Amino acid sequence: DSFDLVITNGICVTAGDIAPYDIAIKDEKIVLLAPSGSLADANATRIIDAERGYVTPGGVDCHVHLQEPAMFGKGTSSDTYETGTRSAIAGGCTTIVGFAPQQKTEPSLLAALAATHLRARGNSYCDYGLHLLVGNPSPQALSELAALRDTEGVTSLKIYMTYAALQLRDDQILSVLLAARGHRILTMIHAENGDVLTWLTSQLEAASLFAPKYHATSRPPILEAEATNRAIALSSLIANTPILLVHVSDPGATLRIRAAQTAGQPIFAETCPQYLFLTRDDMDGPGFEGAKCVCSPPPRDKESQEAIWTGLRNGTFTILSSDHCPFDYDDGESGKKTCITEDFPVGRFKEIPNGIPGIETRLPMVFSSSSEGRLSLTKFVEVTSTNPAKLYGLYPKKGSLIAGVSDADVVIWYPEGKDRKGLDMTITNGMLHHATDYTPFEGRKVGNWPRWTVLRGRVVWDRDGGGVVGEKGYGEFVKRGITSYMLEFS
Ligand code: DUC
Ligand code: ZN
Ligand code: ZN
Ligand code: ZN
């Protein structure tokens, strides 16, 4: 038999175990797992010697904003589908799920989806799915859920409890949850109390407090905990409809989520690298640099970081996504994070687009933490690949290394130990492949990086042999099924 690609001499890590075996790939699929070294001389078009480096399933990042029209009123995405997905594969991520945003003035979800397909199609380096971002839960929109699921392969929605342009009232949230439940569609919720943070923002502005660091003051942790609690309460009213709380940053919110899970409610939660690696002090940088770390919810304090790590370890958080939501710091007119004007010489936190880039740094930063004992390697794979694939109906095509079943999406890391070529690197924006003019993680050390990224059997990233060697357009739209987790709650 001849294979397209063999990966020999690697130490494979899945959510279930760590073991040395060889992987054979044919026609875009993993077709065989065999004892380590046994395929070293196999008949294959290409053989990669992993040199005892770890081999993991390709990363699955299900919270990525690319090329969305200005939804929050300010800022233009600094990455397109092309540049964002190029950045993804260079960081070991082989599948993303982006957002198709429906504006408040737009009655149809299907129309919003079609508009996003036009931006993404033919432009992606990695495989991708789409969530519907519901800005207007009109009767028409909610009547389209069946078609979304059965025809379009879209099985999840995102709704907001904040942002004037998107914020839903509680009764609207209930309508969305009820409709979603009927079709076993998963609802993602951005839980911050929008009315209160708008009021706090006016208070700060009235006191002439405009600097980036006041972004954190305007969004204290209790706003997130309150809205998280409310979202959980609303989901319980609809016979415990499963929900996913996105980008959780606050220990109080985390405790509430854990309590609901302990009580048997189907509550899922996501966190992001910014809540593990940044604090609010990073928004107090020199000059206006603090704007580079402005995202919502804002990074919190050191103790909160510890609580979020604990929540990852103990399973409160099902997934870890990047929430890549990029805006240039200072490039061109639109989308700038610097909003310094004559009237506002220290800028104006209220005008800073909320969101940071991180699609490429997510896996290396969190993987490196495992060598510091923060997260086991199996847990790393679970929260960055396997669980996102299960949660969003991509499993077992994505998120694992199952012979005969899984797509051949694989990341090969550098061998650990002496002569660790490529290890102990310092992140700089210059080495990244997005189009954004900064990274909030500039200067941070990482202990490893994807050496090769393989997408459906093709090497698309070869760090020592050309860098990005994949092509735009090779990435395919993936129709998703019903969340694996919801099958338990039918
Ligand atoms: N929410 C997100 O999910 N991404 C960036 C901005 C925001 O508030
Ligand atoms: Zn194909
Ligand atoms: Zn959000
Ligand atoms: Zn987001």
TrEMBL record:
SUPFAM superfamilies: Composite domain of metallo-dependent hydrolases, Metallo-dependent hydrolases
GO cellular component, one term: cytoplasm
Keywords associated with the record: Phosphoprotein
Taxonomic superkingdom: Eukaryota
GO terms, molecular function: hydrolase activity, acting on carbon-nitrogen (but not peptide) bonds
Entry comment on modification after translation: Carbamylation allows a single lysine to coordinate two divalent metal cations.
Residue ranges constituting the Amidohydrolase-related domain according to the UniProt record: 54-194, 305-460
Positions of post-translational N6-carboxylysine modification: 158
Pfam families (UniProt xref): Amidohydro_1
Family in the record: Belongs to the metallo-dependent hydrolases superfamily. Hydantoinase/dihydropyrimidinase family.
PANTHER family to which the protein is assigned, alphabetical: AMIDOHYDROLASE-RELATED DOMAIN-CONTAINING PROTEIN, HYDRANTOINASE/DIHYDROPYRIMIDINASE FAMILY MEMBER
Protein name: Allantoinase
Organism taxonomic ancestry: Eukaryota, Fungi, Dikarya, Ascomycota, Pezizomycotina
